[in-house]
Amino acid sequence: MTLLAPNFPNILHSVIDNHPLWDHPFLLRCRHGKLSVAEIRILAVQMYNFRKEFNRILASILFHCSDEKAQLVILEKLFDEMGQGDVKQSHLELFRRFTRALDMDDATLAAQMVTPETRILINTYLQIPHKYGYLAALSAVCYASTRIVSSLYSQLYQGIIDVTNLPKDSLSFFELHIDVDGNHEARLASILESSILTLERESKIKQVITELMDARLQFFNGIERQTFTSELIDNSRLLINV
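RESULT FIELD:
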């Protein structure tokens, strides 16, 4: 058995920080204020399709987790996602405030299809506890979700406010995740660092985090693909009407 390197957390941070996701063209356009409203609407639909599965993802991890301290952190995170008992403050309801501000009613939103790329992201999360075990699933939440959410959502938020004039209340979902206090991440990281004691486990965790980051990149590829397809359809309609 080969013992874990003492700089293990820094190794994982490097895997995340140097991932090509951060140079994705969609995120670059967010940072430079180059999104279109049509792109934002496409993003909103697929983010909703992913977010409505996130409680189920957390519940699956909780089901497979045998560590009591980790169970508590996941349960608290799930409780937060559900508005701490107030359905009007659930994260999914906060997100629907955003989509309503984009002139999508709830029925229209619910009827939108899940793209293959979004489905891959959802399934990647759901399969981790079964495929790699609960430590890998906890790592997915800690490092590839909670740790990146503030940076990722900050970029999306900037891209949205640069080209829209949405009411502040409709953006509360993004503001909540940008201002996350890091408590869940710190507690999970502490549990993981005391549990992942071998290079073999480290290798598995790095593989899981890379798979999730790759799936997130594919998610944005799906947004790009839908945007391109939508523009082709719009251009075809213009030619027909000339």
